[in-house]
Amino acid sequence: MQIYTVSSKLHSEPSFMRVIGIIPARYESKRFSGKALTEIDGISLIQRVYDQALKCKVLNELAVATDDKRIFDHVICFGKVVMTDPDHPSGTDRCLEAYEKINIKMTSMITTC
Length: 113
Fold this sequence. Notes:
Layout: E1 3-4, E2 19-25, E3 39-40, E4 43-44, H1 45-54, E5 61-66, H2 69-75, E6 81-83, H3 91-102, E7 108-111
Parallel strand pairs: 2-5, 2-7, 5-6
Antiparallel strand pairs: 1-6, 3-4
């Protein structure tokens, strides 16, 4: 199991409910291969999505779920990332695997597409 993280800027208020955001990211997408690592003004698309998701006040934790080492190695520089099976039929399946690997008690999960 590979889960890595850097210091988090997320909300840590005590609560009976914890919420995690999971961003699915594939390198070999059908419509635009490598999209997650494409840079706009020097910042990758995946980092832009991650940074925007950090602004969500309801999230206690945020992670990227990927099946690609290039994305994994990139995300580890700025956030939490989970390596997933490359054979998932959808991003939702990838998010579920990441959620199960993180294995923390939560009552809600938010996925982004």
